[in-house]
Please model this.
Amino acid sequence: MTTPSSTCRAALLATLAAAGCGVPGLAQKGADTSVEADSEGQQEAPVAIDALDPAQAPLQTQTEILVRGRGFEGEVRVWIGNTEVEVELIGPRQLVVTTPEVRAEAAVDVRVVSDLGEAVLKDGLRFTDDPIADDGAVDGADGADGGTDGADGADGGGDASGLVSGYTELGLYVVGCPSCLGFSGSVVGEAYAVLHEPTDGAWLDWLPGTGRCVNDPRRSTLSSTGRDEGASVYLQGGAGGIAMNRVRDGALTYYSASGLGTSDMPYNTSFDLAAPSASTPYTVTGAVRTVRDAFDAFEPIELLSDGAYAFADLSAGYALFQWAPTGVSDAMMINIQVYDGTTGAYRGEILCAASDSGSFVVPSSAFSDYYAYDLAAVWIYRWSMTDAVHPLDGSTIQGGNAVGLIGTATLVP
Model:
């Protein structure tokens, strides 16, 4: 086989330019084939923890936490850190627990054990006196119907209803080779929001669980229409705000902003979502919270090379990624979009979710459908999730924040 020519790299550029930024909001591409990170051929775990609501709790206070996932069947036990806590089971996908009182800031594991197995969300719950994304309370008394009590939601401080009515995302990426990927600059920042009628489900339940990779993930949405809340909605936080303008795409109405820079997204900052032009104006407190830090170090750093040194080798047999600092986000996402090394035609995608522990190896089985000297665009980004309460009806607005790097690679054995 031969290495990629300048001609096929040029053919790749037009394809990549239309591919988007590799963040969770991209359009669906292909079929869903799960791959375990540490065991080839293993099926999806029967027990999993998808999200906590809220994902952080104040110090020296008992806080009710809604745990979303699957496999919560039979006798269910839950540990927060090393402390076993009482469980109120809402159904096979939701349960409510009350945190112990913790005196010092810490990020602790959450472990669920049921008759079907065990799941651990590494560093999933953070105890801190920093501002919390919502009011930290979940009422499970009425949970038999699969939801939680949202009767008090109109005052802005009520309990979550159990339904989801929107999603907003804020992302910022440093590009290693802008000319290779069709970007006009070395920093790409964008914001997105879609608001809709409350409904069951979650916007990002298609994401792989921690420590797993998925080939060609099936991206899903909760709404195909969206509410029209006026010409613009705003993310307000840090030293200023971000205006997201209305976009109508067929039946779908959503809001977006592009061309954002580093000053638009300070770290460890809570952003409110404001809709001042809605029929009933409102502000969702803590709709997005940014990660606590970016990257001080990243390997293989060659993936961020520019110009003639772009498309560095990435081993499909041992694709090791390393980074520092660690523990400053909910997860590290690694997204590898693969293109034919001869024609530049899109071939497929690998999406992995890793704990923010400092290293992750993409399993060789994830590359089984690709060939030596295929080309790839590689995104690695810190990822955090926020659940906030809509003040008008107690529904949940889900938020995501991504801070990462975009590079290029050539797949080698």
